[in-house]
């Protein structure tokens, strides 16, 4: 459960996002203008902030800047109606942690919030990773499942590393493109699916339990079998 | 401004033409001055000779031959050695009676005048031109009166040489003036040219400097600036309109998507068929994708986004795209190869370039049949860097190659495949943002698409990075 502040002036989006988050079991505060949003963010302890870029009152990027200046490092996801590279860059430069152009699939938002909040507690410096009987030694660049070594291409290794570090969370295709390939673009074809199915055939084929699962309509999840 | 362009400039040519015309008229004027001066001095001499003949003739009439003889010898004696008068009086048998030349000149008379060469002695030794007139006296005596016109000749030569120097000076001054004038004009034209170039390069706020003197260059600058203001406000208008459309259409579309999502969340039982809902969601997403692509193209085309330009290693970028698409090609049993000669570095927006290259490779995979070959090349030339994708697909007929860049244009054969018909338009937009060109050529069989990025003209291109890890920005 997360405590989330949503600063969004569009009522429909706010209701949709708010309801969705509450149904997913989170606590949501909503501010419909920048000034109230900033005041709430400065006084209440939130796990994550969702801030729209264009707001009446204090502008979204300005809120982010003000919070960072006052040493408030709560993870922030910036929403924008203008899914433009320049906007993303300026949003992230102001101190935002992630950026999501509107319109977005609700699952995409949920997955990104999850990744943002958990980023804090799962250390990135950890080099021995494990999910069920799948082990990864980041330094030795070695992957084993049930003790058997699995040979992976460098990109497959990075893909699996990202999935393991976010195990138990849904990761979307865009998140993979941005974090594993480090490019922001809109593929005309779902290239990521092919990479995933290739990786799946390497780590799951021949095992009774599948670790890498597809989540319909949103993305993928690597998790221990129940 | 280099020397060649200065010499080729129209202002300099104009100045040259002006100097030529001016020199020609100076030459004419000088010729007239020379002619009238020469004529005047000649007339003076001739007048003096005629007057002298008259005086001598009168003396002969009043005092007879002895009187004339005395007068002539008086004149000859009184004449200083530098004197220039010539006298000769002879009798009917051509014998000299008195005079200061030895014999009668052996030349024919022209209009009553004799022009001849005179050998002189004394201080003025040499051959001098002379001019004289003869006069028949009553009694068969012949009188010759003339003048040594050497002075005259020297004066004429002096005049010619002064006029020649004057002409040279005129030419030199004219050329110098022309150069200074055309340099000044060129300087102002260059500033207008520079400004236009900078505006074309994306600095839309720049304006042509005006001196405030109100001359025609200032007027030109003012007019250009007004035109630029208009263009800028029009472009701003287009951007505003497309942003408004983006907002006005995207918002209801987003809501539609949100409602569909909410529906699928709330009716997890089978009261609404799940497949229908998902199909509706997919259609909405497709609509939004098309819309996003269109907006992206519009935004790239309507204004420069130079702020995100960075140094990009094209080879690394291309390799990343190929790597991303390799499994897709493998699924169609296509061979996707990548070759990079040299390590080209360009200045660009890496996400945009990635998008463009991805679209090109995506297209190649889509339109090349199962088992085909796709080769990607990255080559650096002297003035440009080239990213080329060659496939063994059906290619594009020559007459349709221009059209495929148009928005929503799709070849009839490709209507069955997925896509929105905006892929190549986006590539084209990214290319023009980078000053690059996209060309389609027949690969016989198949198609070669070249994305050619020119190197910066000023040679400010960063040197390719040698070591691997630094290569990707």
Integer tally of domains of chain A: 2
The SS-based structural class of chain B is alpha+beta
List the secondary-structure elements of chain B in sequence, H or E. HHEEEEEHHHEHEEHEEHEE
Number of beta strands of chain B: 12
Return the domain count of chain B.
3
Strand order of the largest sheet of chain A: 2-1-3-4-5
Tell me the major beta sheet of chain B: 5 strands, antiparallel
Describe the protein's architecture and organization:
In chain A, a hairpin with a 3-residue loop joins strand 11 (212-215) and strand 12. Chain A is an alpha/beta fold and 226 residues long. Helix content of chain A is 41%, strand content 22%. Chain A contains eight helices and twelve strands. Chain A is elongated and about 60 Å long. Chain A has two domains: 3-121, Response regulator (Rossmann fold, 3-Layer(aba) Sandwich); 128-222, Arc Repressor Mutant, subunit A (Orthogonal Bundle), CATH 1.10.10. Chain B folds into three domains: 3-156, Beta-Lactamase (2-Layer Sandwich); 216-302, Orthogonal Bundle (Helix Hairpins); 306-454, 2-Layer Sandwich (Heat Shock Protein 90), CATH 3.30.565. Chain B has helices at residues 3-8, 10-78, 150-200, 216-266, 274-302, 314-331, 350-367, 423-433, and strands spanning 85-90, 96-99, 114-120, 126-136, 142-148, 310-313, 335-341, 345-348, 373-380, 384-391, 437-442, 447-454. Helix content of chain B is 53%, strand content 17%. In chain B, the strands form three sheets. Chain B has a five-stranded antiparallel sheet with strand order 2-1-5-4-3. Chain B has a five-stranded mixed sheet with strand order 7-9-10-12-11. In chain B, strands 6-8 form a two-stranded antiparallel sheet. Chain B is of the alpha+beta class and 473 residues long. Chain A binds chain B through residues 10, 12-13, 16, 19-20, 23, 81-86, 89, 102-103, 105-106, 155, 181, 183-189, 191, 194-195, 198, 217, and chain B through 243, 246-247, 250-251, 253-255, 257-259, 261-262, 265, 278, 281, 285, 288-289, 292-293, 296, 299, 305, 307-308, 320, 323-325, 327-328, 331, 349-352, 354-355, 358-359, 362, 365-366, 418-419, 423.
């Amino acid at each position: 459960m997360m405590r989330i502040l949503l600063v969004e002036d569009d009522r429909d989006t706010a209701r949709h996002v708010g309801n969705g988050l509450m149904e997913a079991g989170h606590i949501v505060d909503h501010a419909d203008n920048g000034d109230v949003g900033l005041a709430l963010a400065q006084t209440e302890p939130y796990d994550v902030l969702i801030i729209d870029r264009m707001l009446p009152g204090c502008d979204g990027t300005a809120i982010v800047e003000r919070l960072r200046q006052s040493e408030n490092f709560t993870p922030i996801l910036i929403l924008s109606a203008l899914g433009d590279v320049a906007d993303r860059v300026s949003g992230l430069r102001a101190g935002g942690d992630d950026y999501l152009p509107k319109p977005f699939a609700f699952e995409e938002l949920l997955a990104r919030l999850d990744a943002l909040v958990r980023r804090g507690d799962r250390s990135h410096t950890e080099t021995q990773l494990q999910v069920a009987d799948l082990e990864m030694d980041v330094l030795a660049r070695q992957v084993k499942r049930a003790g058997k070594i699995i040979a992976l291409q460098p990109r497959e290794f990075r893909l699996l590393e990202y999935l393991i570090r976010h195990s138990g969370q849904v990761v979307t295709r865009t998140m993979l493109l941005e974090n594993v390939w480090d490019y922001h673009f809109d593929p005309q074809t779902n290239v990521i699916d092919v990479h995933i199915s290739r990786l799946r055939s390497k780590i799951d084929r021949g095992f009774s339990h599948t670790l890498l699962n597809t989540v319909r309509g949103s993305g993928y999840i690597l998790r221990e079998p129940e | 401004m280099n020397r060649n362009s200065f010499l080729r400039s129209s202002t300099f040519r104009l100045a040259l033409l002006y100097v030529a015309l001016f020199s020609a008229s100076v030459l004419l004027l000088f010729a007239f001055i020379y002619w009238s001066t020469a004529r005047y001095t000649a007339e003076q001499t001739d007048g003096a000779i005629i007057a002298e003949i008259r005086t001598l003739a009168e003396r002969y009439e009043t005092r007879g031959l002895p009187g004339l003889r005395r007068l002539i010898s008086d004149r000859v004696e009184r004449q200083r050695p530098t004197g220039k008068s010539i006298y000769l009086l002879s009798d009917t048998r051509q014998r000299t009676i008195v005079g200061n030349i030895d014999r009668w000149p052996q030349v024919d008379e022209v209009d009553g005048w004799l022009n001849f060469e005179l050998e002189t002695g004394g201080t003025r030794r040499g051959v001098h031109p002379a001019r004289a007139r003869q006069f028949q006296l009553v009694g068969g005596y012949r009188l010759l009166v003339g003048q040594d016109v050497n002075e005259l000749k020297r004066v004429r030569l002096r005049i010619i040489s002064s006029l020649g120097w004057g002409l040279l000076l005129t030419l030199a001054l004219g050329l110098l003036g022309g150069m200074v004038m055309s340099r000044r004009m060129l300087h102002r034209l260059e500033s207008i040219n520079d400004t236009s170039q900078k505006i074309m390069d994306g600095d839309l706020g720049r304006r042509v400097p005006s001196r405030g003197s109100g001359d025609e260059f200032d007027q030109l600058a003012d007019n250009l600036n007004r035109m630029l203001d208009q263009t800028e406000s029009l472009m701003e208008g287009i951007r505003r309109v497309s942003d408004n459309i983006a907002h006005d259409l995207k918002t209801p579309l987003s809501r539609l998507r949100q409602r569909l999502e909410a529906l699928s969340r709330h009716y997890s039982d089978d009261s609404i068929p799940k497949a229908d809902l998902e199909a509706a969601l997919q259609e909405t997403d497709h609509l939004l994708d098309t819309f996003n692509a269109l907006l992206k193209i519009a935004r790239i085309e309507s204004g420069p986004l130079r702020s995100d330009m960075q140094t990009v290693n094209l080879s690394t970028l291309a390799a990343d795209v190929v790597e991303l698409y390799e499994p897709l090609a493998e699924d169609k049993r296509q061979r996707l190869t990548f070759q990079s000669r040299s390590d080209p570095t360009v200045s660009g927006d890496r996400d945009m370039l990635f998008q463009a290259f991805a679209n090109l490779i995506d297209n190649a995979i889509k339109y090349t049949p199962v088992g085909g070959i796709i080769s990607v090349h990255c080559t650096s030339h002297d003035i440009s860097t080239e990213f080329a994708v060659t496939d063994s697909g059906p290619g594009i007929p020559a007459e349709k190659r221009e059209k495929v860049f148009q928005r929503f244009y799709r070849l009839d054969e490709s209507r069955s495949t997925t896509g929105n018909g905006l892929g190549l338009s986006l590539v084209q937009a990214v290319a023009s943002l980078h000053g690059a060109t996209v060309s389609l050529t027949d690969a016989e069989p198949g198609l070669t698409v070249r994305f050619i990025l020119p190197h910066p003209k000023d040679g400010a291109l960063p040197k390719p990075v040698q070591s691997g890890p630094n290569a990707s920005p």
